[in-house]
Design goal:
Elements (H helix, E strand, L loop, with lengths): L1 E6 L5 H18 L21 E6 L5 E9 L5 H5 L15 E9 L11 H21 L4 E7 H10 L3 E3 L4 E2 L4 E8 L2 H7 L22
Parallel strand pairs: 4-5
Antiparallel strand pairs: 1-2, 2-3, 3-4, 5-8, 6-8, 7-8
């Protein structure tokens, strides 16, 4: 598995299309979310210059996982579309807190029957680990996000240091919660299934950053 960090402002058009197609397959086609899309490409108003995309590719180059990170010092998904999930309705705005969104770990290049739950778990944990490590490398301490009860329970089972920001609410399709992950030794230890890795790089060039493998 190859993990890359890509600054949105430097993203090649081919990579943006691959990400858009993957997000469309996962969130629009598979999960049936009602999201704006152009053809088979799902992109939204939060794919902005300050966004950092975490991309996982499999052995043959297919996208097998993805997550987007945004600083909370500007508009972000949870604050703009789901503030009702936060106790008191006041979203955080801090240089020490980043938002995680469009988090997915699924190899949509193969049939559903051949998708390995073990593989999805491995990719999901690795993506979240690298996201927390990146946030720490930027001086951050926490990650906030809107998610489902199922993902919240999964993170709890993994041993991640996670807490809710407000009560769960039903959106007509499923139960949603706002949550916060603490980027600390407990979280990193729970997600790290292998040896310690070198510090996460900062996306500052016109190319995808090196894999952290």
């Amino acid at each position: 598995m190859h993990i890359s960090f890509i600054a949105d402002r430097f993203m090649p058009s081919t990579t943006r299309q691959a990400i858009g197609r993957y997000r469309h397959q996962v969130f629009v086609q598979s999960l049936q979310w009602e999201l704006p899309a152009t053809g088979d490409i799902e992109l939204d108003e939060f794919d902005v210059e300050s966004a950092v995309h975490v991309l996982a590719r499999g052995e043959h180059g297919a996208v097998v996982g993805y997550a987007r990170l945004l600083p909370t010092t500007q508009n972000y998904l949870l604050a703009t579309h789901f503030p009702q999930l936060i106790e008191g309705g006041k979203p955080v705005c801090s240089p020490f807190v980043w938002e995680l969104s469009r988090y997915a770990a699924s190899d949509v290049s193969c049939g559903a029957a051949t998708r390995s739950l073990q593989m999805q778990t491995r990719v999901g944990k690795r993506l979240l680990l690298e996201a927390t490590r990146f946030v720490e490398s930027q001086g951050g301490r926490q990650i906030v996000f809107c998610t489902t009860l199922a993902i919240e329970r999964l993170a709890q089972r993994w041993g991640v240091d996670i807490e809710r920001l407000g009560p769960a609410q039903h959106d007509g399709h499923e139960w949603l919660v706002a949550a916060r992950i603490h980027c600390n030794q407990r979280t990193n230890g729970a997600l790290n299934e292998s040896r310690p890795r070198p510090p996460a790089p900062t996306p500052s060039s016109s190319h995808a950053l090196p894999a952290l493998a």
